[in-house]
Amino acid sequence: MTEKAGFRIGAEGVDVDAVAAQVEAAVAEKARRGAYDDPRLARARRADLLDLDSSEDLAAWYLDSLAEAARVDINDFEIHERRARFGRLLVAFKRLIWKMLRFYTYRLWSQQNQVNELLLAALETLERRSREKTADLEARLARLEGGAPPPCPPADE
Amino acid sequence: MPARGRIAFVAPRFAEGDTVGGAEILLRRQAERLAAGGRPVDFLATCARSHVTWANELPAGRRRAGNLDVELFPVDRDRDADAFRRALRAIGRGRWRAEHEQTWLRHGPRSEALCRRLAERASEYERVVVGPCPFALTVRAADVVPDRTVLVPCLHDEPFARLAAVRGMFARVRAVMFNTPAERDLAARLYGGGAPRRFVVGIGMAPFPVDPDAFRARHGLAAPYLIYSGRREPGKGTPLLLTYLAVFRARTGRDIGLVLTGAGPVDAPPDLARHVLDAGVLGEADKHAAMAGALAFCHPSRRESLGIVLLEAWLAGTPALVNGRGAVLREQCRRSRGGLWFRGYAEFEEALLTLADNPALRAALAEAGRRFVLRECAWERVEAALLSALAA
To answer: In this prediction, does ipTM exceed 0.85?
Structure first.
């Protein structure tokens, strides 16, 4: 049996569920560190949305994505400057601007967060109610049909 | 009494040349295997090659293709293709009404001539094998002699599987042949677990020799690449793969390219386009060489009932990376231990980095996948299951 980079490779091959769990754990850790707070991911999310358009998972996926993005981060952040020339000066200038505007943006973003949280809660409630109602209707339909599949409509004119 | 042993296969298209379609290939190979075993087999299909236009491109009539007697029939001309497309769109988006389903049945690609011929010769056939599921022609053909019909649904978890006509067809036919246990489980969820008789058959695959460096050398590919083979269209997830890889390259700075084989347009994002090689429809040997040289075979589709190209990739010695939102491909990877899966961009990025950085892992996945195909897709096993289903 060989072991490399944390993957146990035995006579039966690799335990892919274990590798998948490692992938999920790495994703969770990166998400916690903010590695996916990246505007470039908007493209991927749009592709997901199109891919899931007809799926029953769409609402759950969309609400998860919304929940991840709903709360605007209003904490202080590290200010960088990519330009080497006058870099320190520019960073100091940006910090000054941030200090001056912080009181105002805090107020705006905290209000925005309240709105986002209310909207998210409303959507989650509506989705849950809709899901429960659909499940109830399906159960009633199944009872009425006595477990038999509904008749096929005529296939021909 | 029907003539002992004669089998009719019915499919919307006959898999030949550049007519790309997994279900059609599956049905043809099953028919050929039966014919090779001495069973008289007729293969009935339409004259269409394109599953988009359904134009009658091939000549109607009987001919011999390999060991099969093939008869092609024209697609009905009186269908309203625009109404059909509107219904298709409504159903595809999961928002349809009863009239959409009626339009789908009435104006979908169908052939009265084919169904008439099937009805005329029905007494000669011991069994009629029809598939795949989401076609008006399949629903019609399954109604000709349902008590002798064996359905090969190639079922996907999609709105079409929830149509009343499809549900009714499942209830009426004599037996159903699934491609994987996951597909059988999906049918149990959708239609209940009772009748008709259900079998997991699938497709037989034979090993082939392959040179992993040949394709790479011929096309001057220096960077590692992912490969996808098959139809390039939204339903197969190719736009998702192109977008994910473009984002992956931008975020990680890793130089991983993409090779696509098969038919259909490739609309790559501008920042990815020069890293994509569209090899088009290749011969089997070239396709297998392209697969063998890849870092991994990526199947981005959520809606597969088998994934023949995935099995081919494993035989070519390449690990898989599949869309985990689809139960069939994810379960294929889990059962075989031949691949990883992703359920969103973040997992795609992490799984691809894992594969790219671990050659030993890639080799172990590929070897497990190959062993799985040689075991599960051995023609002897598949043929035994096929004969059991037909005898049921």
So the answer is: no
- Cβ of residue B188 closer than 8 Å to a chain A Cβ: no
The CA distance from B64 to the nearest CA of chain A, in Å, is 31
How many angstroms separate the CA of residue B125 from the nearest CA in chain A?
22
Q: Is residue A80 part of a domain?
A: yes
User: Of chain B residues 128-157, which have a CB less than 8 A from chain A?
Assistant: 136, 139-140, 143, 157
The domains located in chain B, with CATH, are 7-204+378-391 (3.40.50.2000), 214-376 (3.40.50.2000)
CB under 8 A, 24+ apart: contacts of B66-70? B66/B32, B66/B35, B67/B32, B67/B35, B67/B36, B67/B41, B68/B28, B68/B31, B68/B32, B68/B35, B68/B41, B68/B42, B68/B43, B69/B40, B69/B41, B69/B42, B69/B43, B70/B14, B70/B42, B70/B43, B70/B44, B70/B45
How many domains does one find in chain A? 1
The mean pLDDT value for B151-161 works out to 89
User: Which domain, by its residues, includes A126?
Assistant: 76-139
B346 pLDDT above the threshold of 60: yes
